[in-house]
Amino acid sequence: MAVRLSAMSLMLGTLLLALASISTTSLAARVIVGDSAHWTFGYNYTEWANKSSPFYQNDTLVFMYDPPNSTTFPHSVYLMKNLRSFIACDLRKAKLVANVLQGGGDGFEFVLKKRKPHYFACGERNGIHCSVGLMKFAVLPLRRCHG
Ligand SMILES: *[C@@H]1O[C@H](CO)[C@@H](O)[C@H](O)[C@H]1NC(C)=O
Ligand SMILES: *[C@@H]1O[C@H](CO)[C@@H](O)[C@H](O)[C@H]1NC(C)=O
Ligand SMILES: *[C@@H]1O[C@H](CO)[C@@H](O)[C@H](O)[C@H]1NC(C)=O
Ligand SMILES: *[C@@H]1O[C@H](CO)[C@@H](O)[C@H](O)[C@H]1NC(C)=O
After folding, report:
1. Which of 7, 9, 14, 57 is 20 to 30 A from 103 via CA?
2. Which ligand is in closest contact with the Cα of 53?
3. Ligand 4 within 6 A of 71 CB?
4. Mind listing the pLDDT tens digit for each residue in 39-80?
């Protein structure tokens, strides 16, 4: 009897653990930037961010781009310092978060840990990818309500 009871509580514990991990993983979303277009020149990411919003704290953004070769252009991911440099595609004070090689395979993952504006941009060609290529978007993660 005691053996059966402990076996049952073990099973119950495993079940609860499984449920807990399901609910924590399903709470935070994993979003591919640009959806099937991935992170590429000429796709309107402002529009994408608008239609994909809202984003929540701890959601993961996935930037997917092939490493450069003779036929594909290099891309990267920078965080712009503020709204002004974001609008101007001014990379002077930007922070590199993923280099030209980091978007390959399953992509580069960025977790939106802070509830503050994030200004993402491609840093290649001295801002040309950001301005002409439309490779920029802003995200303000919200607090996720429970329940
Ligand atoms: C990109 O989309 C935004 C938001 O819909 C729009 O205001 C803007 O004009 C678009 N840019 C281009 C170059 O189409
Ligand atoms: C964002 O999308 C909404 C509709 O979903 C639209 O009304 C709004 O004008 C768009 N904002 C921008 C900046 O494009
Ligand atoms: C975000 O994730 C961190 C680390 O996993 C956790 O400590 C924090 O409570 C989470 N915040 C929210 C709002 O889910
Ligand atoms: C360059 O990379 C692209 C995407 O990964 C691939 O399809 C293409 O075959 C590559 N070209 C060369 C010359 O390696």
Report:
1. 57
2. 2
3. yes
4. 999 999 999 999 999 999 999 999 999 999 999 899 999 999
